[in-house]
Amino acid sequence: MTHSAAQISYLEDGHTLRNWLLTTDHKRIAILYVVAITFFFFAGGFAAFLMRYNLISSHGLLGSAETYNRLFSMHGILMVWFFLVPAVPVTLGNFLTPLMLGARDLAFPRLNLLSWYLFMAAGFVALYAVVAGGVDTGWTFYTPLTSLYSKGHVVAAIVAIFIAGFSSIATGLNFIVTIHKLRAPGMGWYRMPVFLWSLYATSVILVLATPVLAMTLLLLAFERIFGIGVFDPAIGGDPLLFQHLFWFYSHPAVYVMILPGFGVISEIVPAFSRKELFGYKFIVWASIAIAVIGFLVWGHHMFVAGTSLFSAIVFSLLSYMVAAPSAIKVFNWIGTMHKGYIHFDSPMLYAIGFIGLFTTGGLTGLFVAALAADVHLTQTYFVVAHFHYVMVGGMVSAYFAGLHFWWPKITGRLYPEMWGRAAAITIFVGFNLTFFPQFVLGYLGMPKRYFAYPQQFEALNLLSSAGAVVLAIGYLLPLGYLTWSLLYGERASANPWGATGLEWTTPSPPPTENFAVTPIVTQAPYQYEQPEAVIHE
Amino acid sequence: MNGYWPSATVEGREVDFLLLALLLVSYAVLALVFGLILLYMVRYRAGSGVSRGARSRKTWRFEISWTAATLAIFFGLFIWGGDLYVRLFQPPADALQIYVVGKQWMWKVEHQGGQREINALHIPINRPIQLVMTSEDVIHDFAVPAFRIKHDVLPGRYETLWFQVDTTGVFQLFCTQLCGVGHYSMTGEIVAMSQPDFEKWLANGAGPEGHEDMAAAGKELFTAHGCSGCHGEGGVGGSPETTGVQAPALSGLYGRSVKLQTGATVTADDKFIRDCILTPDKTPVAGYPQIMPSFSGQISEEKVLRLIAYIKSLKSGSRT
Asked: Membrane-spanning regions, if any (chain B) (predicted)?
């Protein structure tokens, strides 16, 4: 292979469908994931939109509680397992990990491709469950409703999540091994970008927690299909056992969703403040702390479920402890902006939106971690608003921030900057209009998962649904202008933002082999030069 | 009917106070975070000519201090919330007990006097009320926003919830745990009445059909289901001479500790008696052969509650 052949961009390297579907190039697999994940995001979003439509009237506009229950279950299942959990790791993580490490690919390229096929297989089974009639249990599958009473296609949904779990485990293993073994010469652990640290912490959670979910779902399927008493007390089971097992996975999974988002923000804030990341080591170890303590807080989902007073108190304390590292990160991002030269390009606007929304979501986490306050607020719209602020306001904003930041690297094209900024602001405004009223609704006692509700909650629900229209427009805008940029966007230089990091040293889009010569790392990340110092000397 | 503020219970008003404190802490932090971001966005925007001065490099002192401050605030909130929670779920000994059974998709209530109601609960004010709750099918949740309380209602268990209302009125009751397609319709009302009104309601307002005392109804079941055949009339216990089998005495049982064949000692509470009726294999009492059949599937949760009420009413040595 000649030197110039090695420099062909990964997008130019073979155009057949076969080239794409059998590729082991991490960058192409990332693109495959982007396509899949975008589809699931809009499918789940469509369900959400119908739910908000239903809730405009206190009588329920869809006319059937059955339909509504199936919609919110579809929304939850698609969003959690087919968007939030995989999104950042499998798209940005897949694309960037080797580039940021100075490597040619992930440690196991074929396993990476297999992960995508597993994910797609899971997605098709999930869609089958939806098309066949749907699931009416909610994404949490509480027993014995799910195991013995539900009339939905529960088994198909379980199979889908079971398969998706294997995709997660394979991806997590791949990242762990890659980060351990394939760092470029000179890249010590403390010279690694924070994004990779957060991906590493995320992968550890995926590998350790996902098998518990798989086992739990298997037990659920056994009870449902064969009537083996695991969770239903009528046949000798324990209804709380399911909740313990389920949340043992699903609480750490929250950090799987948000930690990579932290990583993205930790790349963007220094780049657009032209300043070193403040408190690098603290941010790194905060990620590790979140991953570790995150395993010990599952019980805070069960403060009114019938567990002991003692366990409730222990889980409350641990929940407060896991919040501290998140607070550290927020303070450090703000510290990074201090005395910087802040540029307000689209990724930075999304990132600032992220900090605001995530902080609000985090603070309302204090409400639900405080035991007596949780008793009043849990299982109401307050909790719905809280986790949407963290997951959607946080993680989705971070995903959009990252997508805009690395878009020129991934596609070799620039997008229209004004549209990017307009979308970031529309999403921020639309999001707050949609979800802030839900805090008040929850405070007033409106229970979640109600198809129809008492009249007194109608005005706030109407406001929330109106906000959802703005939010939907905000999410459709990037779909439009990013697609436009693929066809007509200006060609991007290797480093359009003037950012540090090995990925910006390769051409945009990168060649198949990533680096013509393996780079050697000589300094810590985020060494941004202060423009003032340059001017005065 | 939905006066939200203030809570109708003393503990609920304490929850309101905690919520207010949480709100103030949140606003303070939000003001700090948003304030600093906005300030820096303006002051340190790329085009701004403001002097940046020397960069601060040492960060550990900052980090330690804001982490410590955060943890201190968190710990305070934890103690506050935890202390109140313990009180929310520790009923006073003299509470009036009322039984609640959740079922897809209704709340069935039975008072000690046998008065029954559906999707409604009448209570006297200024008196601690303790609900003993169970479910016939899936997990439900008994939630009264105006009292700031809720608790899951599980099949196979008795969960309790207590409160003391100090104002008359009608308050909304919700099921807040997804329990199937009719989940949204599993609502009701709590009617808080003065003590004389409540007694009047118990005497004649509680539905047209005749009702009898829960314990008396339990006594009938005790005979009808053949319990007395082994445990003796009045639950005095059986022996091969009197009833043909060796069966433990039930009078005076409630609240006593019982030794099981496994060596464990348990307190004979509602849950234990329920288990003995529905899953006797799991609670073999020491000194007796395990020959009792399970009544699981033969009697409803409500009937179990009536049997428990009857057994509770059997004082030691009584022969009613």
From this structure: 20-42, 63-82
